[in-house]
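Working notes for the structural subgroup meeting. M.R. asked for a predicted model of this chain before we commit to crystallization trials. I am recording the input and output together here so anyone reviewing the notebook later can reproduce the run.

Input as submitted:
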Amino acid sequence: MRRPQPPLSRAIRQLETDLGAVLLHRSPAGVTLTPAGAALYDESRTLLEQADRARARVAGAAGEQALTIGTLVDSVRLAGTRLADAFRERHPAARVRIREADFTDPTCGLRAGLVDVALTRAPFDDTGIATRVLRTDPVGVVLRTGDPLADRATLRLDDLAGRRWFRLPDGTDPVWHAYWTATRPGGPWRDGPVVRTMQECLQGVLWNGTLGLAPVDHALTDGVAVVPLVDMPPSRLVLAWNTADASPLIRSFVALAAALF
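Returned structure, recorded in token form:
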């Protein structure tokens, strides 16, 4: 959200008053959701997803040529403007909508039927989903710039033993969760705070020194750095779409993206 902080803070406090519940826990270490805040967050996401499904059904019933693209963190930035220009040139009448997802859904709404195609990162559970790899990126650990390990050229996972890591919310795709927390699918989770967005991850690193993972060329905030991990497999930037719904417009988008990369 880009609202100035004072109006945003007043709006949140008014919402807390209306609901009769504290939504945020505020401390010198930062701001986190209370149980009530987490419940409101989950309910709000459900309502927004229902609105997205309704919008998609209305557009389909009206016969519009439309494409909804799901994105995750840096995927649109990496696709660049060339893909948008090429798609507009080939399909000038098509209506394109962008839907940004958080860390809870690596399919960016694809599995829920909220988007037609997703620009995201693998690995995740791809049952019923086709993917096309666009590029691969090395991954590193995100550290505060003052961390003793931040000046190292490279690190190994063993170098991070005993450190506190982030984890993703309950119900997150287990393959995706395991990759970004450097654990095994179905294995024990690391002890650490739950994050839903990249900004939550970066701010947690900055304020609390918690560890997270990111592609090494990801845009970072001041005060944090990423050190490559030599024993982490690279992250794959992929296009994903439902195998049962490969419409001509989706196939055209996939072909254009593959050609540009």
